[in-house]
Amino acid sequence: MILCGIAIAGFTVTVVCDIATRTLGRPWLWLQEATMTFFIYGVFAGTAAATRRNDHLYLAVLAESMSGRKRLAFEIFNRAVVLVVAFCMSWYGYLNFLDGFKSLRMPSMTPLASLYAAIPLCGVLVALFTVEQLVNGWKNGFPEKPAP
Amino acid sequence: MSNGLLIFLMAFLFLFLGYLGVPVAFALIAGVMAVAAFTPVSLPSIMGQLFNGIDVEALLAVPFFLMVGELMTAANVTSRMITLSQAMIGHLRGGLAQVVTLFSMFFAGISGSSAADVAVLSRTLGPEMKREGYSGGFIAALIASASTMANLIPPSIMAIVYGATGNVSIGGLFLAGVVPGVMVGIGLMIYSYFFGPVGVQHRRATFPEFAAAAKGASLPLVIPVIIMGGILSGFFTPTEAGVVAVLYILAVVIPALNRGYFRQLPRDLAHTGLLYSIPLITIAASSAFGWMLAYLRGPAVVSGWMASVAGGDPQLIMLLLVALFIIVGDFIDAIPAIIIFMPIISDLTQNADIKPVHMGVVIIVTLAFGLITPPYGLALLMAAKFTGVRFGRAMLDSFPIYVVFLATILFCIYFPDVVLWLPKHFLPQSVGCFPNPGGAGYICPP
Q1: In a 3-state reduction of DSSP, which class is residue B287?
Q2: Looking at residues B123-134, what average pLDDT do you find?
Q3: How many structural domains comprise chain A?
Q4: Is B48 close to A74, i.e. CB distance below 8 A?
Q5: pLDDT tens-place string over residues A107-122
Q6: Are B18 and A58 a contacting pair at CB < 8 A?
Q7: Interface test mutation site (partner B, options A13, A14, A15, A83, max chain B beta carbons within 10 A)
Q8: Helix %, strand %, coil % for chain A, to 5?
Q9: Which of B130, B151, B150 minimizes the C-alpha distance to B140?
């Protein structure tokens, strides 16, 4: 959550500075890169935080209409799917990150990998939070999801 | 495996996992990854598609417009707009129902999200309507229907996503959304007046009362002027207009109307950060899904079929797309629907020589309608939950309101000149007009 706040505050400031420097006739081109960096990291940090808080968009919350062992089985299955996706994001995201060193961002010439890194990091965090939910859910039962 | 089978498998996995309760973004990624394993596509490149889906500058506008709505709601500035709406039309038959619609039109000009509108109305006017004897189902149906205007009247997050992914002028979509937005608003007012509950008859506000309410709401009502003024004058992009609106609220509106709110600002900033990441990760996942769909030549098959049924008739093509999106919108959220089906829309728009802004506004109105249709009418689900009504009850009360939306969609299809009048006059290039080489003004092809 705090990282999300920092990211949104960061790219608000960089967009303001971008408008200001452009209006003054001396644009700082690197500001657009900084803005996208805050934006992308904010999205992936927020994704991990939303996983922990069960705040994602859901099509339906079928498991909530159930109770007992059936509900437990559904909740565990759903989190197992999220865990597999998180693993894919971590491993294939890491391979994509390595690939990102071949491309550069303009004008700073920073490797694109600096942005691609957000995906495996998000994958690791999502996996950690999902395991945390599985352990807590197994011990104390799964919490209700918020309204859609 | 054939492409058709792979597309079926991908769609089935997404819907199956989604309806089991896996978050939409993860269900989409799971479907894409599973199918990619049967194709020569490398799995790391799917991760690259996730990134490409959100590495679009225009999408930066989304968090700012969400922040505008959050700040206005959290700082309790919206109550002044409700007071103004009450002073203007609270004395009519079904007074509070009329107020809900008018307030939604005002609020739509500030926030681009239906969710914020539903949350505000359910907590403020919802209980008051219950006290005046309106049924719970009617309250939920009306609030949900009125909140869809946030997707039509600028600034609309749906329009930003549509423009960013379909390479269509966002300013043009904003302006083209005004006519259907106002039509839905007026339609809801007419419905509430003639067919809704009578409610409690309020006395007409006196001129001093109206003037006081207008004065109280004047600062928030400058926000739409800043946003649209900045975009139309060409001084701001939609993203910059959003950030200027945020600064205006922080520097002018909140200090003038609710100074004590600043203590809560860091917490709300963090909350907005979380709030914007949820649609955007869904956009990223949908973009990978849409890319895989295009790789498997799904859009070419669907658009080929539609073109063979409709021939070159643009109106029939739009009707078929509306039918497709009404069905799709019943099962998946608007934002993934736009991104997944964008290759089909673009193909048909180009082949039938339809103006992209016209097609965009028709699709956006249809998807806004999808917010109140079962089983996945997100606005109706939220309104029912917040007002404490069973979804089935709210759904039954929303059926008559469908007429308003269907009439608006048909109007948008058959009267493009009216819908595109505003973009043609204020942003001519957005609808294909070009500067007259021989003199002043623009030349607009028919």
Answers
A1: helix
A2: 84
A3: 1
A4: no
A5: 888 999 999 999 999 9
A6: yes
A7: A15
A8: 75, 5, 20
A9: B130
The pTM assigned to this predicted structure is 0.82
- In chain B, residues with a C-beta closer than 8 Å to the C-beta of A118 are 51
pLDDT digits (tens, 9 = 90+) for B214-266: 988 888 888 888 888 888 887 888 888 888 888 998 899 888 888 888 888 88
Considering only CA atoms, which of B418, B427, B401 is closest in space to residue B234?
Answer: B427
Residue A148 in any domain: the answer is no
Nearest to B277 among A46, A116, A119 (CB): A46
Q: For residue B383, list chain A residues with Cβ-Cβ distance below 8 A.
A: none
Q: Is there a contact between B30 and A84 if contact means CB atoms under 8 Å apart?
A: yes
- Chain B residue numbers with beta carbons less than 8 Å from the beta carbon of A115 are 51, 55
Facing A40 at nearest CB: one of B24, B55, B275: B55
Question: Hey, is the C-beta of A99 within 8 angstroms of any chain B C-beta?
Answer: yes
Q: Quick check: is A22 in a domain?
A: yes
- Measured between beta carbons, which residues in chain B are less than 8 angstroms from residue A95? 43-44, 47
Q: Does A76 touch chain B (CB under 8 A)?
A: no
Q: Are strands B434-435 and B442-443 parallel, antiparallel or unpaired?
A: antiparallel
User: What are the chain B neighbours of A36 within 8 Å (beta carbons)?
Assistant: 55, 57, 60
Q: Which tokens hold the place of B428?
A: 């001519």
- The residues facing A105 across adjacent strands are A110
Comparing C-alpha atoms, which of B382, B388, B350, B442 is closest to residue B146?
B382
- What digits encode the pLDDT tens for the residues A11-44? 889 988 988 898 888 888 888 899 999 999 999 9
Q: Which residues of chain A make contact with B67, given a CB cutoff of 8 A?
A: 8, 12
**Does the ipTM surpass 0.90?**
yes
Q: Which two tokens stand for residue B128?
A: 């008051």
Residue A106 contacts B where some CB pair is shorter than 8 Å: no
Q: Tokens representing B151?
A: 């997707």
Q: Name which of A3, A57, A99 is nearest B44 (Cβ-Cβ).
A: A99
The answer to whether the Cα torsion of A90, A96, A101, A107 is positive or negative is negative
Q: Which residues of B132-142 are buried (b: 16+ CB within 10 A; e: fewer)?
A: bebbbbbbbbb
- Per the omega criterion (within 30 degrees of 0), is the bond before A120 cis? no
* Whether the Cβ atoms of residue B109 and residue B150 lie closer than 8 Å to each other: no
Chain A to chain B Cβ contacts (< 8 Å): 192
B-chain residue closest to A79, CA distance: B22
The whole domain housing A9 covers 2-140
Q: So what's the pLDDT on residue A60?
A: 65
Residue A88 lies in a domain: yes
Q: How far apart are CA A90 and CA A119, in angstroms?
A: 7
Taking the CA of residue A58 and the nearest CA in chain B, the distance in Å comes to 5
Q: pLDDT digits over B406-421, tens only?
A: 999 999 999 999 999 9
Q: Please answer whether residues B114 and B371 qualify as being in contact, where contact means their C-beta atoms are separated by less than 8 angstroms.
A: yes
| Contact between B334 and A61 (Cβ < 8 Å) | no
Structural domain includes residue A147: no
Measuring CA to CA, how many Å separate B218 from each of B75, B77, B91, B222?
16, 11, 21, 6
